[in-house]
Amino acid sequence: MISTICRMCPQGCGLEVTLENGTPVSLKGSKDHPYSKGWLCPKGRAALDLFHSPHRLSSPLIRKEGELGSVEWEEALNFSAERLQRLRDLYGPQSLAIYQGEGIGHQEIKYYMKRFANVYGTPNFMGVGSICNAARTMADTITLGGVTKPDIANTHLLIIWGANPFASNEPFPPKEISQLKKRGGKLVVVDPRRTEVASKADVHLAIKPGRDEILILNMLHVILGEDLWDKEFTEKWVNGFRRFHETVVEDRYSPENGEALTGIPSDSVRQVARSYAKTKPACISMGNGLEHHSFGISTMRLLVIMKAIMGNLDVPGGDLFTPRPKLKDMTTPLPEPSIPPLGSEEFRLFCQWRKEARALSLPKAILEEEPYPIKGLIIAGGNPSLEWPNSSQTREALEKLEFLMVIDVVRSPDSQYADAILPACTFLERDEHQMNVYQNLHNITFRRRVVEPAHGLPDQMIWVKLAHKMGFGEYFPWQNCEEGIDHILSPLGVTYRDLVSKGGIYEYEKRRYKKYEDQGFPTPSGKVEIYSERLNRLGYDPSPIREDAHQKADESDQFPLHLTTGGNLLCYLHWQFRYIPKLRKMAPEPLFEIYPNTALQYGLSEGEMAEIQTKNGKIQLKAHLTDDIRPDTIHIPQGWEDACANELTPSDDTDPISGFPNLKSLRCSVRKI
Ligand code: SF4
């Protein structure tokens, strides 16, 4: 039996894999893992189905005379290196973009990719952080100087806002919620849908899509109007509170004035606001239901301010900072290229802070050659045409590329446009370290290879081999993942062997609370910033309150319903794993959710086909009638190739600071077909 950690999603739950004659035959959750404690979701339980899947790529493919055909690694690497060199010679290194998808995550493999981009000379490394999670961390960081996560195990009240943690990419084991309830804690969920977690809530606020900003202001109006905030903390640690207070207590922010916009009765708003303010400690989990709107950053900043002024920051049961350890930064062995990355003109804070390009600026750069032409792209573990807004534009861009390389475990939908496809092995066949700060753990955990690769190579080694073929070998001296891990962890004095001997769990520091009391908050003022110095310096509005927050949504007879897209299904991660029969059985076909009476108005019964249309496009899929959604709203989950929700989403409706797209507060029509 070998202990490792799952990578069917980024959470990294503990796994114990049993081998027979060198082949993995069964697995179970590891009770020793500090986060998952033996729990696995259906994807984790299906990890061996991925390992044994007949859909896995068994050899590289390259395109010759228009056709993709299998070749040996040597030929595929030579072909790819030659094509990459040609782009560099003809158009300059900035003409290559490198995209890291969710399939490979945000840690070790990304470091190799960033290093390759740096040595090649392109500023255009970009990742799935352009569309997921990074806006939340930006809102936290602008306001607090760091990222917080809720301390669910010790809290008395948890608000889950815009997240569906039992199904999403950032799940927490359902046990955490049942234990909260068992010890008398309260759960509040804010979501247009009655998700599984919302059905367990003491209060579910079924908000109209995109009205979170108003609801937060309404709650703050109650908290500030009724003198319920933590005065000692706020006086000492919050910058810009007096002005904020004066504005929020104005009558226009009352729950009564917000009711028509949010769809939430004012009594419920007052009750939840008081309950949150009077329960100590309390914490808030922010999901990506908050970041996929036109004003996600200012909305989330309001929620972050609410956490802060209640004195819940970095206290047991509150919202905790869990710092990362200082590791070796392998990403930039050479000076940064002087040419700016894509998106940095419009979204300078995003690009400065992430030290990368904005992925959603890529289609325009390919199609319109603005701000400069992009001719080549490497996609690793991602599928932009399904994941990014405005799918048809993305497809058009992929088709126009002079060279597209895809690195993946299976043939992803976008690999149909590729000139070269390199097979990566599964996570069971590679070594990799992982940090667990999003789970409030000061641990480095270890994804230990269970077997040697049956097909493909570890992603890290694909980049090393490609770099050698390109003549960059001196910058990629690592012969295997083990040596790379030793390099990255060297500042801690920890090695690959240490991780093995410690059972794959290394604790780099102990939990400390109220760390801000030592050195203040890592913001320009050293305090929680309602008024953001950083935003002000970069020419953005430094206040989180937008003057036109109360503006009515753009409603019309042509598009009478709210549309929210992109929810995850528990059995899949974005587009992945639909080819695993056990998981496919759980959600066999694309469905949109619609309230029964609303469906009746359109003459729709369960399972009947309808056409959903927005300003951006239309798709056809079957209706699922459920009273778990607001009557004025429909929802379409993400990742379906034959009914892609992103055919309906626009690429030009974005948050002005993060550049994140509006995927969750759109308008649509429904027509039975
Ligand atoms: S939540 Fe599921 S898919 Fe994600 S790491 Fe845990 S078991 Fe694996």
What does the model show?
With about 675 residues, the chain is of the alpha/beta class. It folds into 4 domains: about 1-50, N-terminal domain of TfIIb (Single Sheet), CATH 2.20.25.90; about 60-130 and about 330-425 and about 455-480, Rossmann fold (3-Layer(aba) Sandwich); about 150-315 and about 525-535, Dimethylsulfoxide Reductase, domain 2; about 560-670, Barwin-like endoglucanases (Beta Barrel). It is about 30% helix and about 20% strand. It contains 24 helices and 27 strands. The N and C termini lie far apart (about 55 Å). Bound molecules: iron/sulfur cluster. Iron/sulfur cluster binds near residues 8, 11, 12, 44 and 171.
Largest sheet: 7 strands, mixed
Mean pLDDT: 96
CATH class of the largest domain: Alpha Beta
Tell me the Rg in angstroms.
Answer: 24 Å
Number-wise, the strands total 27
Work out the helicity level.
25-40%
- What is bound: which ligands? iron/sulfur cluster
Indicate the proportion of strand residues: 15-25%
Strands of the largest sheet, in order across it?
Answer: 5-4-17-16-15-6-7
Which helices and strands, and how do they pair?
Layout: E1 2-5, E2 14-20, E3 23-29, H1 42-45, H2 47-51, E4 61-64, E5 67-70, H3 73-91, E6 96-100, H4 108-120, E7 125-127, H5 134-144, E8 148-150, E9 157-161, H6 174-182, E10 186-190, H7 196-199, E11 203-205, H8 212-225, H9 231-237, E12 238-239, H10 241-248, H11 255-262, H12 266-278, E13 282-286, H13 296-309, E14 319-321, H14 348-354, H15 362-368, E15 376-380, H16 384-387, H17 391-400, E16 403-408, E17 420-423, E18 432-435, E19 443-447, H18 459-469, H19 481-489, H20 496-501, E20 505-507, H21 516-519, E21 528-529, H22 533-537, E22 561-565, H23 581-584, E23 591-594, H24 596-601, E24 609-613, E25 618-625, E26 633-636, E27 666-672
Parallel strand pairs: 6-7, 6-15, 9-10, 9-13, 10-11, 12-21, 15-16, 16-17, 22-26, 23-25
Antiparallel strand pairs: 1-2, 2-3, 4-5, 4-17, 8-14, 18-19, 19-20, 22-27, 24-25, 24-27
Helix pairs in contact: 3-18, 4-18, 5-13, 8-11, 8-12, 8-13, 11-12, 15-17
The structure holds iron/sulfur cluster.
